[in-house]
């Protein structure tokens, strides 16, 4: 009987109202109760329309909440919706009702998506901090402990992990807690741009990690091959559950990949954020800062992917060709046919085109081992491409190099065009990198010398003293007594290495004799130049003289890191970056040797008996940096600035940095590693 009554009710309902009318009229009323962009849970489902129809009390404008008898009053917007529903029941304005429904759905969807993006940022940040802790507290600590036993140099371990401890401290102590707190307060403060805008400047510490990433990966590879203790310890850690069956190199790549992840999430966040939102300006500013840092990380990721591809090819070639080099870049690979010179028969071959060479290979049909044998290595230098015509064998072209000339046949006209284009572009790029300055001037006749360099070569320069620099003032590579010695440019007086001084020009002040000059002076004196954009300086590439002249404090300090010997360093805290300490080898160096983001460090100004006089220490996690001034007065001058910087303040006033920092942070126990 119940089933029969139900069927009668449905028939009566269908006879009274059309299906479209009843369904569409019931939906929009659910969206009229919205609080902070979300549906009010107290006005959810109406009483069953079927029951009302059966009782004869059907009404398109009255809905009952569960457990509440009286009809809920409608707000002003709700009254308007009621009128539209009534019009819909009378067969009027169906499009208006649909548009209103879509409006409410869109508003709710955007707010939900903003919350979802913020929540994804929090969840991925938690996982990322766990990986940083794995690198810092597991891999780094255990390898350092083994190094201290004398198994391998501790300096190598420090180079591999760079400043991973500082990166870990920043994310675990500042960024993650801020995000955790904000997501708990999301109902009242639905924004993340202000947090990222405040903390994004500290992502510049990634510059040091990314810059040394290639060398770190190469160091891991070499130490794994040559030092059994290093290899066994790394493999032992990799077997642990926390590693997830991933290698050390994989985990080392995560900090490089993290910055582009922030950029992607923030771009998505801005797309969903209304332009009139209070969070718009902060989110836009933080995206600009993060995008700059992401460009360096993306470059490192591309290098890593290229290195992986080179390793794969290295194995395919039977590990006989020395191609695994960061300077090598794979351009194109694929099957090709080679026309024999004697009988013009086509033979199957395989080509690997790199930025500096072409590997001409013969396939090996074996189930295990190498897949190809290198028959010829043709250098790009001197290579020429000629399109040939052969009636019996279409789609042919010729590769002519110093080592060998090959007549090749592509599988189709398109394949031939792609190979010729790739080869020619590679040749052009190679010559552009290696062409002489005389050839460059033929392409650009508008080049002229600047007025400020009019006296260059006409008057003897003042030579920079050898002891004023520790690195080449052009390429920024460190000097050493064997492979990179100091040389002076006879035109500008700069101290440069042999590579950067491998040019000669006639100098008027020396009677027109040929003298050794640097690359830049050769361009100006000879009238030859390269039309290259000036590269954006990295954090370590800021010249000492540039920051020293506009600094909060700068002087020579004795510096010691962990158990290393004391060494003299020119230390600077610039006004434009007052929370970072830059360390140079000498006042005229064009590149910093290291930087220390001071935020969060604990200052210890009580020297031990074994320390130098007027010394103080900066401690964070297991990072310990010791400094010693020449006098007590100079020491207090430095401490006055550093004590403000470690709490996020500057001499000019409080800085907009993490509010969670304690005014007087307690010193923490030194890490065992």
Mean pLDDT, as a whole number? Answer: 75
Give the biggest beta sheet: 7 strands, antiparallel
Strand content: 15-25%
CATH hierarchy: architecture of the largest domain: Up-down Bundle
Number of domains: 4
Largest beta sheet: strand ordering: 6-5-4-3-9-8-7
The count of DSSP E runs of length 2 or more, i.e. the number of strands, is 22
* Count of individual helical segments: 18
As for the CATH topology of the largest domain, it is Dbl Homology Domain, Chain A
Unreliably modeled segments = 11-95, 436-452, 531-537, 653-673
The CATH fourth-level homologous superfamily of the largest domain: Dbl homology (DH) domain
Fraction of residues in helix: 40-55%
**Radius of gyration over alpha carbons?**
35 Å
Ends apart, CA distance between termini: 79 Å
Q: Specify the CATH class of the largest domain.
A: Mainly Alpha
């Amino acid at each position: 009987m119940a089933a029969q009554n139900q069927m009668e009710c449905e028939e009566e309902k269908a006879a009274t109202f059309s299906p479209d009318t009843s369904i569409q009229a019931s939906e929009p009323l659910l969206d009229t109760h919205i609080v902070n962009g979300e549906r009010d849970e107290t006005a959810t489902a109406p009483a069953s329309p079927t029951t009302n129809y059966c009782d004869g009390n059907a009404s398109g404008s009255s809905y009952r909440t569960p457990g509440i008898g009286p009809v809920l009053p409608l707000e002003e917007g709700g009254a308007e919706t009621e009128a539209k529903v009534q019009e819909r029941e009378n067969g009027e304005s169906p499009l208006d009702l649909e548009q209103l429904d879509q409006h409410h759905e869109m508003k709710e969807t955007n707010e939900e998506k903003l919350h979802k993006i913020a929540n994804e940022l929090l969840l991925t940040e938690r996982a990322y901090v766990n990986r940083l802790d794995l690198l810092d507290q597991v891999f780094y600590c255990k390898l350092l402990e083994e190094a201290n036993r004398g198994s391998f140099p501790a300096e190598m371990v420090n180079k591999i992990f760079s400043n991973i401890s500082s990166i870990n401290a920043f994310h675990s102590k500042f960024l993650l807690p801020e995000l955790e707190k904000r997501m708990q307060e999301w109902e009242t403060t639905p924004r993340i741009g202000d947090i990222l805008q405040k903390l994004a400047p500290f992502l510049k510490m990634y510059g040091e990690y990314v810059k040394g990433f290639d060398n770190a990966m190469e160091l891991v590879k070499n130490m794994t091959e040559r030092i059994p203790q290093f290899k066994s310890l790394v493999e032992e850690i990799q077997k642990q559950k926390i590693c997830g069956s991933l290698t050390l190199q994989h985990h080392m790549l995560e900090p490089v990949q993290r910055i582009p992840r922030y950029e992607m999430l923030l771009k998505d966040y801005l797309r969903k954020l209304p332009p009139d939102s209070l969070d718009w300006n902060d989110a836009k500013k933080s995206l600009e800062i993060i995008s700059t840092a992401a460009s360096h990380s993306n470059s490192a990721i591309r290098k890593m992917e290229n290195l992986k591809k080179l390793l794969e090819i290295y194995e395919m070639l039977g590990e006989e060709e020395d191609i695994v080099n960061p300077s090598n870049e794979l351009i194109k690979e694929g099957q090709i046919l080679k026309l024999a010179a004697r009988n013009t028969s086509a033979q199957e071959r395989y080509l690997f085109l790199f930025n500096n060479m072409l590997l001409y290979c013969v396939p090996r049909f074996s189930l295990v081992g190498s897949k190809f044998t290198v028959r010829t290595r043709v250098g790009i230098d001197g290579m020429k491409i000629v399109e040939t015509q052969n009636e019996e064998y279409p789609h042919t072209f010729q590769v002519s190099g110093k080592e060998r000339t090959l007549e090749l046949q592509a599988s189709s006209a398109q394949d031939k065009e792609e190979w010729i284009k790739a080869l020619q572009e590679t040749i052009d790029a190679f010559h552009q990198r290696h062409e002489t300055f005389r050839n460059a001037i033929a392409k650009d006749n508008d080049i002229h010398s600047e007025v400020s360099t009019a006296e260059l070569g006409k008057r003897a320069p003042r030579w920079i003293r050898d002891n004023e620099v520790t690195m080449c003032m052009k390429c920024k590579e460190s000097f050493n007594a064997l492979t990179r010695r100091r040389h002076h440019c006879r035109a500008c007086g700069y101290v440069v290495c042999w590579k950067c001084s491998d040019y000669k020009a006639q100098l008027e002040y020396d009677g027109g004799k040929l003298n050794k000059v640097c690359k830049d002076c050769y361009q100006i004196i000879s009238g030859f130049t390269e039309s290259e954009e000036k590269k954006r300086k990295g954090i370590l590439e800021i010249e000492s003289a540039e920051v020293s002249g506009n600094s909060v404090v700068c002087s020579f300090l004795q510096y010691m890191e962990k158990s290393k010997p004391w060494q003299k360093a020119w230390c600077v805290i610039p006004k434009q970056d007052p929370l970072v300490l830059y360390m140079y080898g000498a006042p005229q160096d064009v590149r910093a040797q290291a930087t220390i983001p001071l935020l969060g460090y604990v200052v210890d100004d009580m020297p031990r008996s074994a320390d130098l006089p007027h010394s103080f220490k900066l401690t964070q996690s297991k990072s310990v940096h010791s400094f010693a001034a020449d006098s007590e007065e100079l020491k207090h001058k430095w401490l006055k600035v550093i004590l403000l910087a470690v709490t996020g303040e500057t001499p000019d006033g409080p800085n907009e940095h993490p509010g969670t920092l304690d005014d007087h942070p307690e010193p923490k126990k030194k890490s065992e590693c």
